[in-house]
Amino acid sequence: MENRLDFQAAAEQYVSSIVKDIILSIVTCGIYYLFWQARQMRAVNYLLEEEKYSFWKWFLLTIITCGIYNIYYEYIMAQSIMEMQRRLGKTVSSNLHILSVVLAIFGLNIVTDAIQQDEINRLFGRQ
After folding, report:
1. Helix and strand counts by DSSP (H, E) for the chain
2. What does the pLDDT profile of the chain (127 residues) look like in tens digits?
3. How many CB atoms neighbour CB 63 within 10 A?
4. What value does the CA radius of gyration of the chain take, rounded to a whole number of Å?
5. How far, in Å, CA of 6 to CA of 96, rounded?
6. Region class of 30: left (phi > 0), else alpha (psi between -120 and 50), else beta
7. Nearest by Cα to 112 from 48, 46, 49, 18
8. Is the four-CA dihedral 65, 33, 100, 47 of positive or negative sign?
9. Residue 15 contacts by C-beta under 8 Å, 6 or more apart in sequence?
10. Between the CA atoms of 50, 52, 55 and 58, what dihedral angle is there, to the nearest 10 degrees?
11. Nearby residues of 33 by Cβ (< 8 Å), 6 or more positions away
């Protein structure tokens, strides 16, 4: 992981208010949700120190598969968050991947992403 100052700068960029994210997603009829999704991908890529997630790949495959790819994406995103929790010695959310899939299947993506954002915020040391 990069030095502490770079990590703090990254935290400022990737940590966000979940309430704000939800409200803006609803008010903009989902447009802000796309920006939120992209930010989460960048945050997890930063923590993993690799380019594992691509917004455009997610966006196109989600459209092409009528949302089925998003269910898979929520699963692998949750697994990556759990991997980072292990690497950083944090408490691992052992059922995060299952919860993410179940919520995504029922169309509760905004809830899934709120939970994942909370975990991302915790990884950066913020609540």
Report:
1. 7, 0
2. 456 558 788 888 899 999 999 999 999 999 999 999 999 999 999 999 999 999 999 999 999 999 999 999 999 999 999 999 999 888 888 899 999 999 999 999 999 999 999 999 999 886 5
3. 11
4. 14
5. 28
6. left
7. 18
8. positive
9. 120, 121, 124, 126
10. 180
11. 25, 109, 110, 113
Amino acid identity of residue 127, one-letter, is Q
**Residue 69 buriedness (CB in 10 A; 0-12 / 13-18 / 19+):** middle
Nearest alpha-carbon partner for 55 in 13, 43, 86, 26: 43
List all residues 6 or more positions away from 25 whose beta carbon is below 8 Å from its beta carbon: 32, 33, 36, 110
Find tokens 């950083």 and name the residue: 88
* The token pair that represents 100 in the structure block: 């993410």
Other C-beta atoms within 10 Å of 91: how many? 8
Selection from 20, 9, 70 nearest residue 43 by Cα: 9
Only one residue has tokens 């030095």, namely 3
Distance CA(62)–CA(92), nearest Å, equals 28
